[in-house]
Amino acid sequence: MTMAREDKKELEVKYGLPEEVKFCKKCVMSNQRPTSSIEFRHTEDKKHRTLNFDKDGVCDACRANEQKELIDWKAREKELISLLDKHRRNDGHYDCIVPGSGGKDSALQSHILKYKYNMHPLTITWPPILYTDYGLENFKNWIEVGGFDNITFKQNGKAMKLLTKLAIENLLHPFQTFILGQKNLAPKIAAKYGIPLIFYGENEAEYGNPLADNSSSLRDKSYYAMRNLDEVYLSGVSIKELMGKYGLSLADLMLFLPANSKELEKSKIEIHYLGYYLKWTPQEAYYYAVEHTGFKARPFRSQGTYSKYNSIDDKIDDFHYYTTFIKFGIGRATYDASQEIRNKHIMREEGQALVKRFDGEFPDRYFKEIMEYLEIDPEYFLKLCDKFRSPHLWVKINGEWKLRHTVNCDGVDDKK
Fold it and tell me: b/e per residue, 48-84, with b = 16+ CB within 10 A?
């Protein structure tokens, strides 16, 4: 559905988002959702690659999910077995890498590869900046109950803290630093240990990311290092400024950058999504992880949504989804409800109600601790939120910010 808006030419549109706000007719996601948020650039004012809609008003993610019903999953599993047969080792060495933190997805990936397909995975972890108690317990259970070797790369705490703070100030993106490290660690470890096969879980194409090519070798250029460091920005700051003004060394920063592209190409590393070969349903992954690795859901509902088991290991998780609500008008309940609608676990009307109830809920549970750790004044953060709201999405009425358009058609401009 398309929402008309008065005087839309007079409203500033930030981040290169679509000027016209649309909502998918099948799920509750809008066309304001970026499909790739990992870019080494100065600001986020440049054009985002956002979710596409077809002529019928259905988003790419829903169409990709529909295609899962047409897939011959037995044939796909044969493809997987053929791939694993090519790489499986019987000499005691690792034959694949599974990045993760012990959440439901990494638990399923590693367990099924080891115990069903007789692979010898090395699990690797880029730990959260602030572990939750239950997230840390799930990590320990993953390794100890599941039975896996693990390399945990404890990053330079000073650099991680500073870059996270700068990412909030310059991009309102508290997760950028974590995502960069998490994504870039696996190829580096693979190259160092001579392990040519990396497995991630769900295929990102199911969420509308056109860069996610089912199964692939290292085709995604975002896994490669920038060839010119002068053009690279972390947390919205140039490498030169981070080294000069902020006192970080190149060695401090390299862990956040991709591995050397020539080294990766020489190593012939392949990156694959297990969700391409095996039908992947988040709820089933949760049940599997509970049974096989002792995974436990959060003891309470995640703020901003209604679920208890998605992305619960980092105290910044809820905080991150609040910032996506500020910048794109899309909160955590929208993400969760859209996924459950696609998997036919709830109806769209239920999703709309959940979005109305929970989207944009302020994450106050860990907010004070996060602000203190990053040395950010809470009032300053709230002012940053106002700065990063795009006028084509938000309007302030009687001192309160309101969305112009919502999936429930009750936004300020929806009523005009």
Answer: bebbebeeeebbbbbbbbeebeeeeeeebeeebeebb
What pLDDT is recorded for position 257? 86
Provide the token pair at 155: 């990053």
Burial 188-215 (b: 16+ CB within 10 A, else e): bbbbeeebbbbbbbbbbbbbbbeebbeb
Structure tokens at 305: 């949504």
Please, where in the chain does CATH 3.40.50 lie? 71-277
Residue-level pLDDT at 9: 54
CATH of domain 71-277: 3.40.50
Give the separation between CA 295 and CA 411, rounded to whole angstroms. 39
Measured CA angle at 227 (ends 226, 232), to 5 deg:
45
Which two tokens mark 83? 């791939």
Q: Which of these, 28, 104, 7, lies nearest to 352 by C-alpha position?
A: 28
Q: Tokens for 411? A: 């936004």
pLDDT at position 406: 98
Cα–Cα distance, 289 to 111 (Å, whole number): 9
Q: Would you say 380 and 386 are in contact if contact means Cβ atoms under 8 Å apart?
A: no
With a cut of 70, which residues of the chain have pLDDT below it?
A: 1-9, 36-48, 203-228, 261-265, 416
β-bridge partners, 124:
99, 151
Burial level of 283, CB count in 10 A (0-12/13-18/19+)?
middle
Which residues face 237 on adjacent strands?
234
pLDDT computed for residue 210 by the predictor? 45
Residue 205 has a pLDDT of: 52
Amino acid, single-letter form, for residue 21: V
Angstrom distance (rounded) from CA 122 to CA 189: 10
- The set of residues, in sequence order, having a beta carbon less than 8 Å from that of 295 and lying 6+ positions away, is 102, 103, 104, 107, 138, 141, 142, 286, 289, 309
User: How far apart, in whole angstroms, are the C-alpha atoms of residue 180 and residue 191?
Assistant: 17
Radius of gyration over every alpha carbon of the chain, rounded to an integer in angstroms: 21
Question: Can you tell me the distance from the alpha carbon of 317 to that of 107, in angstroms, rounded to the nearest whole number?
Answer: 19
Local structure of 22: helix, strand or coil:
strand
* Interval 101-118: pLDDT, tens: 889 999 999 999 999 999
Are 148 and 114 within 8 A, CB to CB?
A: yes
Question: Which string of b and e fits 320-348 if b means at least 16 CB within 10 Å?
Answer: bbbbbbbbbbbbbbbbbbbbbbbeeebeb
